[in-house]
Amino acid sequence: xxxxxxxxxxxxxxxxxxxxxxxxxxxxxxxxxxxxxxxxxxxxxxxxxxxxxxxxxxxxxxxxxxxxxxxxxxxxxxxxxxxxxxxxxxxxxxxxxxxxxxxxxxxxxxxxxxxxxxxxxxxxxxxxxxxxxxxxxxxxxxxxxxxxxxxxxxxxxxxxxxxxxxxxxxxxxxxxxxxxxxxxxxxxxxxxxxxxxxxxxxxxxxxxxxxxxxxxxxxxxxxxxxxxxxxxxxxxxxxxxxxxxxxxxxxxxxxxxxxxxxxxxxxxxxxxxxxxxxxxxxxxxxxxxxxxxxxxxxxxxxxxxxxxxxxxxxxxxxxxxxxxxxxxxxxxxxxxxxxxxxxxxxxxxxxxxxxxxxxxxxxxxxxxxxxxxxxxxxxxxxxxxxxxxxxxxxxxxxxxxxxxxxxxxxxxxxxxxxxxxxxxxxxxxxxxxxxxxxxxxxxxxxxxxxxxxxxxxxxxxxxxxxxxxxxxxxxxxxxxxxxxxxxxxxxxxxxxxxxxxxxxxxxxxxxxxxxxxxxxxxxxxxxxxxxxxxxxxxxxxxxxxxxxxxxxxxxxxxxxxxxxxxxxxxxxxxxxxxxxxxxxxxxxxxxxxxxxxxxxxxxxxxxxxxxxxxxxxxxxxxxxxxxxxxxxxxxxxxxxxxxxxxxxxxxxxxxxxxxxxxxxxxxxxxxxxxxxxxxxxxxxxxxxxxxxxxxxxxxxxxxxxxxxxxxxxxxxxxxxxxxxxxxxxxxxxxxxxxxxxxxxxxxxxxxxx
Length: 753
Ligand code: MOS
Prior knowledge:
Helix content is about 25%, strand content about 25%. By secondary structure, it is an alpha+beta fold. The strands form eight sheets. The protein has a seven-stranded mixed beta sheet with strand order 5-7-3-15-12-13-14, with helices on both faces. Strands 9-19-18-17-10 form a five-stranded mixed beta sheet. Strands 20-28-29-30 form a four-stranded mixed beta sheet, with helices on both faces. A hairpin with a 2-residue loop joins β12 and β13. Bound molecules: dioxothiomolybdenum(VI) ion (MOS). Dioxothiomolybdenum(VI) ion binds near residues 353, 355, 357 and 510.
């Protein structure tokens, strides 16, 4: 029975109360532990297809008559188009259409950041299009850019209003403390760098638009496009069968897409628009830089009495204010908390969501300052975290649907005990140490999401749903879930995704929510088909339905009989068994969050400031694990990306002009396999008994959250030096070492730091 309920929807910490159509979701969860298919290491079903180059990504789409678009972008951080001549470009060889300022929504002559698109060309080849761009005769009027975040906050230039939060009595908490630590931290601007840049192919068919596009949200994009173009939603079809990553940068529409749609309309041809790596690293979105001042205070027994923070986020010209204060508000059971967050609006490219936005930056400062506090109190850092364990949501008292962070801490102990041994391996040059940091983040997903299952006379199951696989292996996980429920071997399940015209609504691949949002719908659809098989089998074999189950491709009766599934499906001829399923509601009155801890082992060359990470142990609680192999690869990917963010990646902007200096990958340094340490992954595979028919939470984001702080704490453990800014360059390590040396020479008064 379908019901309309009020349900809380959450994406990356943004909660929304919505009316949600749900269907009864009465399935009991599977027992904990591995099943026949679920909970077993499963290589990606499309792995070979991808490795052989056979998977069709957006960049592989070549349609007959397809034109190529190129965009004219502002070379200045702030400038106005005083005059532009389109005629010469329009008349150039191979050019089919030119769009100028003001002709497409969001594309005008007022550039507020470098890379802002003001015009576009569609031509026979990409070469023709780029040649034509050079014929666009533009006169720019340069304007003074606003580039400093603190100055912007002072002037009230904000993307969204300053966000303030307080609970308890912060001042009293400080007064009651035996130790107070205050510190300042910064984080840098980062580029997402998905392997596949933003790209699309737009084709009009009559008054309908087909869009092949690299996106994290097929349905969100369909709706955004329909609105922007003034079309009914079902006149827009969005297709994304394979995707080369997004990390949050591909959640929504971009101007390049609207320009391609317009050029396709004007020319009556399909138009391809693909951002180059240089364009991607300017306007593809970014993790915003932050400046943070944080305070942590505790009694001598380790009880936190106050946590406070002021966070300034350099958001660029747009985006949204991410929850940088989230970890401070949620991670520990501290009664007195006060946070202030500013979102500076600057003449720099807008931020975009990036793998646990806000929490990555906020965890960096919180978990570093907590270790300083532990040192001042003479309490073991792991002990301090346990002492302040939050047993319910510290913001509103709601119970957690599940929380196994204490189990993560317990599993961390044997690793943590090795720190003395690690330290003892130090010599004059290389100092060794170990550090830790906790993780909290969202990842519960929510309704609605739907799936269909089609079982044919060949006994094969097709799962159909219009979701996308961002690259995390969602397709494989969905096949496992359907196979488990239908009692089929994995090779008899096909998963068809990636086309809004070919399956029902599916939610965003963001906020670590794909599996917890989509998985339950797939299981529910498979269960619907399984129920029908059992009804038919009961009639055919004259058994009671309650005795029958599906297992290993057979229909099995509790009283002894067993028949291959084909004895039922084989009778169907052209008939099909059709199952449908929906994602049920989230548990009412509860908080669904993910938890974990990471420990890092480092060696620091105190002469040069070089840091080598030798080992990272990652212990996370994300509910039931569907594919342990895929989950481990998410953890490894998150940690490797975090290593880049910790040591080498930084978007650098010219402080005078606001022009991005790191447009290419020789200037913007991603980690390589040579940077990857030993990674130990341990997942507390405990189903969340309140969350859906699966008990699974998401894992895309959690592993990137605590890594930088764990490494900084390890550097501190090894050397006594407090690094405070990301990336941790050798200069930063040497600065911190000098500062630590200074502290040893002239100890400051107790109580301060
Ligand atoms: Mo969001 S950073 O796409 O999960």
